[in-house]
From TrEMBL:
It is an enzyme of class 5 (isomerase). Its EC number is 5.4.99.-. Belongs to the pseudouridine synthase RsuA family. This is Pseudouridine synthase. It comes from Metalysinibacillus jejuensis.
């Protein structure tokens, strides 16, 4: 069962707020009866009409975006900055990002209009691996990298064990490139982890999400996931395994 205003918004008819307004104004019927209660819950078998037009379920869509720098992982931004959904101007479905990448982080970001799919892929209990390449200031010590591998105490608790490796280290320039795989998705987690060992991140890119990578996409480009990939992601989230 879902709240009526959410169902209307998901069908792509209106924003959540506009949907609430339509309900209060008596423009919405459930099974032939006008409903003005905002808390009303409906199921997929209920017939919902808005202004006399039956609601059709929006087709579910799934995209893989190479998120460019300087974009917000949100549908709208109150400061008027560019959002990832601005890149999808020609897509009529109301898609939203699955999780978040920071404004300055680039790389693989999924977008969909499937709320349940998004929940499965972002909830920490489903443990989906995400791999990042971080350019850091300074050279991490072996001890520092081990701390990240074991889990490191941050202000919101200890992180789960991570896979970490140093790909290059430039002693003269005092910088290094590391690869790190985590399955949690806390706010600015990778940046905070490297900060905690004294080598702050200067550039961050998400290279992989589960078994998906960026392939030949350039920043700002996207493609649709295949049905097979969507199914595989669902199975992975539900079972923790790929087959
Ligand atoms: N960790 C971060 O610090 N930033 C991101 O954008 C993603 C993971």
């Amino acid at each position: 069962m879902e709240r009526l205003q959410k169902v209307i918004a998901y069908a792509g008819i209106a924003s959540r707020r506009k949907a609430e307004q339509l309900i209060v104004e008596g423009k919405v019927k459930v099974n032939g009866q006008v409903v003005k209660e905002l808390g009303t819950k409906v199921s997929s078998s209920d017939k919902v009409e808005v202004n006399g037009v039956k609601l059709e379920k929006e087709q579910k869509v799934y995209f893989l975006l190479y998120k460019p720098r300087a974009t917000i992982s949100a549908v709208t931004d109150d400061k008027g900055r560019k959002t990832v959904t601005d890149i999808f101007k020609n897509v009529e479905q109301r898609i939203f990002p699955v999780g978040r990448l920071d404004y300055d982080t680039t790389g693989l970001l999924l977008l969909t209009n499937d709320g349940e799919f998004s929940y499965q892929l972002t909830h920490p209990k489903f443990k989906i691996d995400k791999t990042y390449v971080a350019r850091v200031k300074g050279i991490p010590t072996i001890d520092g990298l081990k701390k990240l591998q074991r889990g490191i105490r941050l202000e919101d608790g200890k992180t789960a064990p991570a896979k970490v490796s140093m790909m290059t280290a430039d002693e003269a320039a005092g910088k290094a490139i590391c690869e790190i795989t985590i399955h949690e998705g806390r706010n600015r987690q990778v940046r905070r982890m490297f900060e905690a060992i004294g080598t702050p991140v200067v550039k961050l890119k998400r290279e992989r999400f589960a078994f998906l990578d960026l392939g030949n996409l350039a920043p700002g480009e996207f493609r649709q996931l295949t049905q097979h990939e969507v199914k595989k992601l669902r199975v992975l989230a539900e079972t923790g395994k790929l087959d």
